[in-house]
Amino acid sequence: MFAPTAFLWGAVYSLFYWFAFRFIGTLGAAMSALILTPAVLWLVPQNSIIATEAELDKYRVPAVKAQGLIQPAGDIRIDEAFGGWDIKCHSRCLSLLFEPNVRSVTIHRTETGSWEQLRGGSPLLTARAKTFRLRKAGQCGDDWREPEGTLLGYYGRNHEDKLAVSTDLKRRLTTDVCLSEEQPLERHDMLLRHARWHSKSPTNSSAWTFSPNTVRIVLEEIRDGTGEVLFRAVNVSSLGLFAPLGVGPNGGLDSFHFGWERTQMTTNDSSSESDVQGAVDDALAVRRSVDKARVLEETRLTISAALDNPAFPETAIIFEAVGDYLGQLNRLTVSEQDVQLVQRLIRDPRFSDLPGAYHLPNLFGSDDLNALRGDIARKLASTVPTNRPGPTDLGNALGNWPEGAFSKRLPEETTLLQDVRMRTRANGLIVRLSDGGTPAASLLTSILDEHLTLYSDFDRSELRDLNGQQRREREHEHDANLKTAEAAINGLCRLGPAASDQLSRLLKIEEKADIARSDRRDWDRMMVRVGKPIETVQKPESLGGSEKRYHANLREFVERFPETRCG
Questions:
Q1: Residue 197 φ/ψ region, left for φ over 0, alpha for ψ in the -120 to 50 degree band, beta for the rest
Q2: 120 conformational bin, left if phi > 0, alpha if psi -120 to 50, beta if neither
Q3: Phi–psi pair at 519, nearest 5 degrees
Q4: Which residues contact 204 (CB under 8 A, 6 or more apart)?
């Protein structure tokens, strides 16, 4: 926002020039104004800057450096200044519970209302607190709780370690221990605290004030059971005037306005706010690696045993580890056991999908992948209640099968593609119909026509009389039709000239279809690949640039294909 500041500087310069010109002439006035303007504009905000520094000092909270990494032990309490009202034991809580010397984790949601409360720490426990503990498998009784959310190996040293730790925790929660929820403990041996606080806004607060702004404090700290601070990272900051004085934007898009230009000011010992986030976890002696080969073998055995037990539901935590398990495999570690285990998971009627299926093309050779195709098609075509229409991991993974894999379709795949609703679960297969060449073009065009029609005919007014669940299902089906139409567009684009006999049908579809603006570029690329003259393509109104430039981009896309890929 250079213009407002330039106007301010120009006005000050003109004022000095006008005044000096009366006494020392043109050259002297110009030189004086050039010297005085930046000097005065630098001096004007200095009192405000000094006052802001004094305000920051009033709320200084000293940082405390840990004497080495701190080992969590005993009953841990976590004070959080964020999160919803419903307290659950997520990945961080569970990872701490699996530390060898930790007995329990109490999560407490706090609201720091005063400066004294922030500085003193550890406010009294409220109703917004819960204590979690691990017990031996089968001993949790009515206190048993299913771990919430996507369980991650929170304290792994790197991505591979986090994946392995996550898999190991899910296995141990299946075979060794259970998670229980209890009334909150009043005492703790260690406090892990995250707090936010800000001072009151000045009474004359505005974008044009010279008074100090609100002071904002973010801190993370570790205290022992007596309240002694073992570690603290803190950011004490405020927006102070910028020197030399300028005019800058303030507020968001909905409240945009101008005011004095400001800059972030902090105390000398403050960390940046980004460095404060997660500082407590970095100060704990919890980062670890695991024996990945051991975890993989034990996970194989545990998943296999769970498949043998019909009492395990699809939502059992060991089955949530399937995606992690596949993510840890590679071509060197994959075995016949893994192929058989994946086949069992696909065939098991408890599962509507296979988490992490996108890993399969990178793990198995062509023969093993082709051996899975029939089972996958039957799974995707199954109309059991849990198998609702819409994109799936398994269906999308088929798009990455080896080149030419679907040049000949299996009977099960043909049956799946004939079902208008369930084929929306197999978008990868629809894209790969292009492997069949010209004979597949008519089917791809029919799929495109059917699902664009279903998408265009969707009437949102019909949702008014439906309950929440029914409304979500209808919207999900609506989105599924669009995704399937996009898969057919991708398949036809891959076919290109081999689908030229479908151009007249596609032109008729183009006339009547409701093609979303964001998808128009993919549609146009497909059409020119099939044979529509580029000069007849109209640039979407939502895109910038000229029609000539748009045509040049389409021409470049066609000339560089297949280096430039469809979709």
A1: beta
A2: alpha
A3: -100, 0
A4: 211
Q: State how far the Cα of 381 lies from the Cα of 447, in Å rounded to an integer.
A: 16
Sign of CA dihedral 374, 377, 379, 384: negative
C-alpha to C-alpha distance for 451 and 513, rounded to whole angstroms: 10
Rounded distance, CA 429 to CA 487, Å? 9
C-alpha 190/C-alpha 180 separation (Å) is 20
- Count of C-beta atoms within a 10 Å radius of residue 330: 10
Count of other CB atoms within 10 angstroms of residue 375: 17
Average pLDDT over residues 252-278: 82
- How far apart (Å, rounded) are the C-alpha atoms in residues 389 and 383? 9
Annotate 273-320 with three-state secondary structure.
Answer: HHHHCCHHHHHECCCECCCHHHHHHHHHHHHHHHHHCCCCCCCCHHHH
Alpha carbon separation from 464 to 407, 467, 481, 566 (Å, rounded): 45, 8, 21, 38
Around 19, how many Cα atoms within 13 Å sit in the side-chain half-sphere? 9
pLDDT at 163 over 70: yes
The residue with tokens 């404060």 is 276
Cα 538 to Cα 531: distance, rounded to the nearest angstrom: 15
For residue 452, give the H/E element and its range. helix 441-456
Closest CA to 366 of 412, 400, 402: 402
Kindly state the average pLDDT of the residues 406-422. Answer: 95
- Please state, in angstroms and rounded to a whole number, the distance separating the CA atoms of residues 427 and 447: 11
- Per residue in 300-326, pLDDT (tens digit) is 999 999 999 998 888 888 888 899 899
Q: Are strands 177-182 and 129-136 parallel, antiparallel or unpaired?
A: antiparallel
- Strand ordering across the sheet containing 229-241: 177-182, 129-136, 102-109, 74-80, 190-198, 216-224, 229-241, 262-266
Q: What is the pLDDT of residue 255?
A: 62
Q: Between residues 31 and 461, which one has the greater pLDDT?
A: 31
pTM of the model: 0.75
pLDDT category of residue 35 using cuts at 50, 70 and 90: confident
- Contact present, 108 and 80 (Cβ < 8 Å): yes
Dihedral of CA atoms 77, 82, 86, 90 in degrees, nearest 10, equals -60
Q: In the prediction, which pLDDT does 313 show?
A: 86
β-pairing verdict for 229-241 and 129-136:
unpaired
- CB burial class (10 A; 0-12, 13-18, 19+) of residue 434? buried
Q: Judge whether residue 171 has pLDDT over 60.
A: yes
The Cα–Cα gap between 404 and 221 comes to: 58
Give the separation between CA 59 and CA 269, rounded to whole angstroms. 12
Give the closest residue to 314 by CA, choosing from 326, 325, 306. 306
DSSP designation for 141: G
420, 450 in Cβ contact below 8 A?
A: yes
